[in-house]
Amino acid sequence: MSTKSLVSVPATTEKICQGDVFKNVRYNYIDAEDDDNVDVVEYEFPLAIIVSQACDVIGMDDIFSTGRGKPTKFMPSILLCPIYNKTIAKKGDHLSDVFYELDISLINEDVYHKDDYKIAERDWHYRFHVLELALNETSVLSDAIIDFKHYFSVPISYLKKNIDNRLYHLDDIFSEQITLKFATYLSRVAIP
After folding, report:
1. Of 53, 54, 7, 48, which is closest to residue 174 (Cα–Cα)?
2. Which of 23, 45, 63, 5 is nearest to 181 (CA)?
3. CA angle 43, 47, 51 (to 5 degrees)
4. Separation of alpha carbons 90 and 137, rounded Å
5. Of 11, 19, 109, 133, which one has the greatest count of Cβ atoms within 10 A?
6. Going by C-beta distance under 8 Å and a sequence separation of 6 or more, which residues neighbour residue 51?
7. Are strands 128-135 and 4-8 parallel, antiparallel or unpaired?
8. Where are the extended beta strands (E) located within the chain?
9. Which pTM does this prediction carry?
10. Cα–Cα nearest to 88, from 66, 65, 112
11. For residue 107, what are the CA distances in angstroms to 51, 56, 96, 129, 143?
C-alpha cells in the first residue's frame, strides 16, 4: 500500500518550496525556429509537484522577493514532475493531450504492467511513485501517480505569478522521499 503523505495548505505569503503541489501548470518550449518563425509548444499539466531541492527553490524565491542575489544562488528554472491520475496513466491516456499538441500518433499501451502496478502500489517501484495526500486525516488526493520519466522546468517567476494555483505543501519527510526517488531514477545506469 502506498504511503499517505501529509500536506498543509500554505498561505500565499509563504515561500515556494520543494514539495509544493500546483494546479494548472503551463509548460512551453521552443520546438523549432528559423529566421522568420518560432514554433512554441505549450500544454498544461493539471497537477505538478516541485522536486528541486528546498534550498535552491527558497534561494530563488528570496532573489525575486528582494530583487537582489548572489550569482551562485541563481537557478534559471525549478524542476517539477506532473502528477497523473493513476487509472488514466495505466491505460496510457495521460499523455494524449501532449501527443496531440506535438502532432504525434499515440500508440495505446499499458504504461505499467501487472507486476509494475503491484510494485508501484507498495511504493517500491523505481520509476513510479503512487501518491495519496491527506490534510488533517482527510484524503484530498488519491488514485494519483508520479512518473519520474516525465519532468519539466519553469522559472520561479512563473510560480510566483501563479501562487494562487498552489494547492498543498507536503510535509518535509514526504517531499524529501519523492525527491530522493526522483534523483535515484535519474542516476540509474542505462543498460543497452
Report:
1. 7
2. 5
3. 100
4. 27
5. 19
6. 18, 79, 80, 81, 151, 178, 179, 182
7. parallel
8. 4-8, 20-33, 38-50, 78-85, 128-135, 138-147, 152-154, 166-170
9. 0.83
10. 112
11. 29, 38, 10, 23, 23
**Grid coordinates of 173:** 519527510
Q: How does pLDDT run across 49-97, given as a tens digit for each residue?
A: 999 988 888 787 787 778 887 777 778 889 999 998 887 766 666 666 6
d(CA 140, CA 129): 17
- Amino acid residing at 5: S
Any idea which residue has 507536503 for its cell? 170
Contact between 148 and 29 under an 8 Å Cβ cutoff? The reply is: no
Q: What is the pLDDT of residues 97-119, one digit of tens each?
A: 666 666 666 666 665 666 666 66
- DSSP, collapsed to helix, strand or coil, labels residue 87 as helix
Q: Where are the domains of the chain?
A: 4-186
Query: Using CA atoms, how far apart are residues 98 and 106, in angstroms rounded to an integer?
Result: 10
End-to-end CA distance of the chain: 32
